[in-house]
Write a structure and sequence with these properties.
Elements lengths: L4 H7 L9 E6 L3 E4 L6 E9 L5 E8 L5 E2 L3 E6 L4 E9 L7 E9 L2 E10 L13 E4 L20 E2 L8 E19 L6 E9 L3 E7 L6 E21 L7 E2 L1 E4 L1
Parallel strand pairs: 2-9
Antiparallel strand pairs: 1-3, 3-7, 4-6, 4-8, 5-7, 8-9, 10-12, 11-16, 12-15, 12-17, 13-14, 13-15
Length: 251
């Protein structure tokens, strides 16, 4: 019996259409230092390779030792469009150093990203070594870690207008010796008045700044063994009259 190619094709089940969405993740590996504000970022890229618009999803999974800013990326992709979404990856203070893995999946595509977790070196600054970084309040566009990430272009903003005082605080699990606080504030509408306070069983003011108009002010004081230091903000300059702190460096 002769069976034509057309008949064979008719009898075979139809193959599923190829996924029009192409997944890529960068970087291909990620070093992360423990600490609340020592995060690194993955870029999840979803590209629509078809000629019609589609919805695209990517799911991220990781062990409990890692904290992911989000576990789902969902986006609308016009034809030929690529969307790149940053995902913040961090490991809390005390996370065991070692090798971990994040899996990023989209449809039948999977990408594994090795993550190497290490503790901050002893030579790291006290801000980097802080076990907790907290504030009185914050805005989604200007989060707490923006003032402890080493980038003066980003800044923390409190979540209330014309309500004082506010505070921005560093905590350490074991006592550290401090004698200096460098406060960097935005050039426009930055901090005007604040106190530097340390915790030694109670809050103590060790330095005060009033009438500031500079972007960086250094406060020095006799060395203290402390488990926390905070900037108690009392007034700001400019529109909204709120707390804006670009970077806090403690030594």
């Amino acid at each position: 019996m002769r069976i034509t190619a057309a008949l064979i094709c008719a009898l075979l089940p139809a193959l599923p259409a190829p996924d029009p969405v192409h997944l890529t993740v960068s970087p291909q590996s990620l070093p992360v230092t423990t600490g609340p504000c020592n995060a690194r970022h993955l870029s999840v890229r979803l590209a629509n390779t078809s000629t019609t618009p589609v919805y695209a999803d990517a799911e991220l999974t990781a062990p409990d030792a890692l904290h992911l800013q989000r576990t789902l990326v969902s986006t609308w992709l016009p034809a030929g469009w690529t969307s790149a979404v940053p995902v913040r990856v961090s490991a809390a203070t005390g996370t065991p150093p070692g090798d971990y893995r994040i899996r990023v999946s989209s449809g039948d595509q999977h990408t594994d990203v090795p993550v190497t977790v290490t503790a901050p070196p002893p030579t790291a600054g006290l801000t980097t070594r802080a076990a907790e970084v907290t504030a009185a309040s914050f805005r989604a566009t200007n989060p707490i870690c923006a003032a402890a990430d080493g980038d003066p272009a980003t800044f923390w903003t409190d979540g209330t207008n014309r309500v004082w005082p506010d505070w921005f605080q560093l905590d350490w699990h074991t006592p550290v010796t401090v004698s200096r606080a460098d406060v960097r504030t935005p050039a426009e509408a930055g901090l005007r008045d604040w106190d530097v306070q340390v915790w030694t069983g109670a809050w103590q003011t060790v330095a005060s700044v009033r009438g500031n108009t500079a972007t960086t002010r250094t406060s020095t004081f006799p060395p203290r063994s402390v488990t926390a230091l905070r900037i108690l903000t009392l007034a700001g300059n400019g529109v909204g009259d709120m707390s804006r702190l670009a970077e806090l460096t403690v030594s």
